[in-house]
Amino acid sequence: MNTPMPQWLKEMVGRNKAALRTQTAEKAQSGLDRAALHTVCVEAKCPNRGECLNCGDATFMILGGICTRGCRFCAVTKQKPLPPDETEADKIAQTVKDWHIRYAVLTSPTRDDLPDGGAGHFARVMRAIAALNPDVLTEPLVPDFRGRTEDLQTVLDAGPAVLAHNIETVPQLYGGVRVGADYRRSLDLLAYAKKAAPRIFTKSGLMLGLGETQAQVRDTLKDLRAAGVDLITIGQYLAPSKQHHPVLRYPEPAEYEMWTQYALDLGFAGAACGPLVRSSYRAGALYRQAVLHCKLNAQNTEKQV
């Protein structure tokens, strides 16, 4: 049974829903509809959808809107997926140009039905964006590719600014929450990405409210830093329906401030923590935070020398 949502969070969600009715948001959504493009904003019922559409931001969901796994927290449809859309790369590249997007986030449902898990399609979309929009940075938020490093390398070779893969929750909850996923496999994927392409930032995300303890969150953040992860997002889990995993807790905003400071103290180059923060929320700003962090560290090192 879900814990009742506190009034302060209801008001926050309500403000974002109201933002969907603005002319800017409606124009952005109609553009996506005309191009027949999926976004994680819609497919995963993101609470920030109104805010992001008004800012001209959207996280593109490639490879369709159907997932081959059954995570109990996720709103994405679980059915037999369709073959990849061969025109999708060009359509997304054109949309990025039309919207004047400077930082494009790409995610996908897990596609265990494809031999490479969709890695080649990720790379095609990224290269199409780069060909039409040379100054645009890309951030692929990838599935675990069942641990196949050769598929991950395909994505890295396409030259993203950030390689993202969400750990989602603490390892103690994987059995009941992340069906088909493996905590160690996800950590190993992130560690491989950092070692194979050290100049590419790595990023992961956690949800709170699934039944985790603060001690477990601290240990998970330590594991992510040990794997070389540079950027972290932490947000509130919101159950998409009564059939999904229940929400067991709603941390107060002060707790998210505490997690931000804890992550930075651990050595993360950037942290975005808040009730409605999601892994792709203001991703470009978090990337710039990491760039600034690295520049300041380099300057401090030079002064010490």
Structural features, described:
By secondary structure, this protein is α/β, with parallel strands linked by helices. It contains twelve helices and eight strands. A four-stranded mixed beta sheet has the order 1-2-3-4. It has a four-stranded parallel beta sheet with strand order 5-6-7-8. β2, α5 and β3 form a beta-alpha-beta unit. α5 packs parallel to α6 and α7 crosses α9. It is globular. The model has no long low-confidence stretch (mean pLDDT 85).
Précis, in short:
With about 300 residues, the protein is of the alpha/beta class. Helices cover about 45% and strands about 10% of the residues.
Rg, rounded, reads: 18 Å
* Distance from first to last alpha carbon: 58 Å
Mean of all residue-level pLDDT scores: 85
Q: Spans of 5+ residues with little confidence (pLDDT < 50)?
A: none
* Helix-strand makeup class: alpha/beta
Helix fraction by DSSP (H/I, runs of at least 4): 40-55%
Order of helices and strands: HHEHHEHEHEHEHHEHEHEH
Largest sheet: 4 strands, mixed
Q: What does the oligomeric state look like here?
A: single chain
Strand content: 5-15%
